[in-house]
Amino acid sequence: MKEEIRQRHDRLRASDYLELIGDEEAERRAKAAQHFVVIAPGAVNDGVALDACPVCGWEALAMSGIDPFGAGVGSGACFVCSYVRSADEAEELARRIMMTRHMHN
Fold this sequence. Notes:
The chain is an alpha+beta fold. It has one domain. 50% of the residues lie in helices and 17% in strands. The chain has helices spanning 2-36, 87-103; strands spanning 50-52, 59-66, 74-78, 84-85. It has a four-stranded antiparallel beta sheet with strand order 1-2-3-4. β1 and β2 (59-66) form a beta hairpin. The radius of gyration is 14 Å and the shape is globular. Mean pLDDT is 86; it is low at 44-48.
């Protein structure tokens, strides 16, 4: 339960921050994120460096790790809204994705 509360708090904080910076600044940051990402060999799975942020929707979540199930869900921080997805949250999301895939096969 504590993890769910922390996740909810993180999403609300990032959403508030997104509102504070506004659309123009969010777009500027999303574009800039493309230039800051350095893909280091072995740093993330298959060279994927950015993911869509669940808070702001921009492809600006810089992944610092990848889930152990191979679903492609990464932990990391968003360049735009500062949302942080923890490794635990990434793993839980990946687990749900894998269960859904399994149920549909």
